[in-house]
Amino acid sequence: MAQHGFFHWNELLCGDVDAAKAFYGETLGWSFTAMPMKQGNYWIASIGAAPVAGLMDIAATNLPSGSDPFWMSYIAVDDVDGRVTKVEPAGGKVLHEVFEVPGVGRIALIEDASGAMIGWITPAS
Which of 55-69, 71-85, 105-119 is predicted least confidently? Predict the structure, then answer.
């Protein structure tokens, strides 16, 4: 498992996934593999065999139509279910309750006390 408290994953949510793939492929040498989802493909970006990030169409999310593209970061936590109970007493908000992504892990989306959104993940073993 990823070490508790360290950044674990980053993903780009954007409206033009093909343009983003072309950009990062050309500038960083990333290659892409599709991971089918109900809402379309989630693209795993890799350098060689090592996955480095994910990309998805922002329209496949629950975000408001017309949302600007952004990078979303996830921090690995030892127990997302337990840790999320500490969010509100510490001045944050739970934006999306803990959910399971099979083979990936348990994830919650929170807003920290400064108002910044972040994902917390307990990666699957």
Answer: 55-69
Q: How many Cα neighbours within 13 Å face the side chain of 88?
A: 5
CATH number, domain containing residue 112: 3.10.180.10
On whether residue 66 sits in a domain, the answer given is: no
94 and 53 belong to one structural domain: no
Q: Which amino acid is at 120?
A: W
What is the pTM (predicted TM-score) of this model? 0.87
pLDDT tens string 86-119: 999 999 999 999 999 999 999 999 999 999 999 9
With beta carbons less than 8 A apart as the criterion, state whether 64 and 21 touch: no
Q: Tell me, what's the pLDDT at 86?
A: 97
Looking only at the bridges linking them, the beta strands covering 105-111 and 93-101 are antiparallel
What is the domain count for the chain?
Answer: 2
Residue-number span of the structural domain to which 33 is assigned:
10-59
